Amino acid sequence: MSILIGVGVVTTVTVVYLGKKGWQALHKAVGITPGVLTYQDYDAPLSLSRLSLSTIKWQQLDLNNKHLQSLSEQQLRQLKRIDEKVNHYQRYQKALQAQHKMPELTETQFVLHKLLHTRLPEMLASHYHLVNVNINAHNVSNDKKAEASALLQSVLDNIEQRLDNLLEQMDTQQLQDLRVMKNYINSHDS
User: Fold this and answer.
1) 36 to 27, 31, 33, 96, 97: CA distances (angstroms)
2) What are the two backbone dihedrals, phi and then psi, of residue 175, each rounded to the nearest 5 degrees?
3) How many CB atoms lie within 10 A of CB 92?
4) What Rg, from alpha-carbon coordinates, does the chain have?
5) Consecutive 10-residue runs of the chain (190 residues): their mean pLDDT?
6) CA end-to-end span of the chain
7) How far apart are CA 71 and CA 120, in angstroms?
8) CA distance 184 to 190
9) Which of 55, 101, 110, 190 could bridge across to 96 with cysteines, CB 3.0–4.6 Å?
């Protein structure tokens, strides 16, 4: 009886040991460290006061983080959404290039590119200057600050709407390409 209990204990210890080593090997194989995973709440506030300026990583937009300090939470979230949509669009363009399909640059795409990479940084710099730099001189009234924020919000809304329209056109074109291919295949079935 004591032999059976001893074998049971040794078996249990061996299974636990090998299980733990296997679990660690699995985590090492996929590149994560057990117990070190941190949760990132995507609905948490994006305010720059709680984040260091170097932690905000833009995928496609080249924005000066200093100019983002005076933005509201809603505007920061909207900029993040715009950046994600631009990244999605850029991935689509790269996929087309990989297929050796060089799409023509439309006026809409050109205007959007100019808005994103030239006008948006200029607007953010102007907004920052008006709201923050002139605070020290007390030259700017609250009405002008409110108008500057409203104008910036209008530009952000316009850019996001243009991006949404462009992504919608992209999806429609892909769907149309699939329909054409399906019709082509169906026409050759007979």
Assistant:
1) 11, 12, 6, 39, 39
2) -65, -40
3) 17
4) 27
5) 88 90 78 63 53 60 78 84 88 82 80 87 86 61 80 90 91 89 83
6) 77
7) 13
8) 11
9) 101
The pLDDT value given to residue 52: 42
Nearest CA-CA partner of 164 in 48, 85, 84: 85
Contact by Cβ (8 Å): 164, 154: no
Q: Are 82 and 160 in contact (CB under 8 A)?
A: yes
Q: Maximum distance among all alpha carbons in the chain?
A: 92
Helix and strand element counts for the chain (H, E): 5, 0
pLDDT in the model for residue 12: 93
Phi, psi of 95 (to 5 degrees): -65, -40
d(CA 22, CA 17) in angstroms, rounded, equals 9
Tell me, rounded to whole angstroms, the distance of Cα 92 from its chain centroid: 15
Q: Which residue has the tokens 């054409």?
A: 180
| Block residue for tokens 């059976």 | 4
Q: Do 89 and 166 contact (CB within 8 A), yes or no?
A: yes
- Tokens found for residue 81: 């959404």
Half-sphere exposure of residue 90, counting CA atoms within 13 Å on the CB side? 12
Q: Cβ(49)–Cβ(128) under 8 Å?
A: no
